[in-house]
Every structure is written in C-alpha cells, then in structure tokens.
Amino acid sequence: MPAAPRRSTAQPAPKIQKQRPQSYIEKTTAPAEPPKPPASSTGRRKRRVPREPLSTRVPVALRERMYDYEESTGVGVQAMVEEALTEYLKKRGFGETS
Q: Considering the domain boundaries, does residue 72 fall inside one?
C-alpha cells in the first residue's frame, strides 16, 4: 500500500507585478483631486440648545452684590447700568456737548 503523497504547506512565492515606468508628465503633474462636495453638505447641522435663563447664569456673588447695591442706594439694575455707561462715555469724551 503506497503512502499518500505528502502535501507541502509552503506558500507559493507571490507574483511580483512590474510597475510600468512613469512618464514625464505623470511625474511632474499633481494627481487630480476628487471633486469636493457642496459646502452645505459638509458641515454638521447646528442645533439650538435651550439655555437656562440669565438669572441662573449670573454668578451668585455678583447677583448678591447687585441686590445689596439696590437696597443701599434704592437704584435698580437698569439705573446701575445707565450710570456706569454714562460714566464710561464721559471718560471717553462722548458725554460732553460742544
């Protein structure tokens, strides 16, 4: 009884493909870029995120200072802002009449 023929487990050598030589034009010109998609489709859509009201975004310390000022002077926040803005504009020379 003859023995079964042995099968080799060796991999056949990979075939090497010869690269064709590049022409002068191919060497010197940049590869063509694929067309870009329209700008409207590239970016992510910006979703509006509801923000909490300003009263919760103002730091507690600042809010307390504003209320303390309001109680001591009897002036509201609107008047505080107007006063500060008027003072700033006078410093910059906008409050003077010629």
A: yes
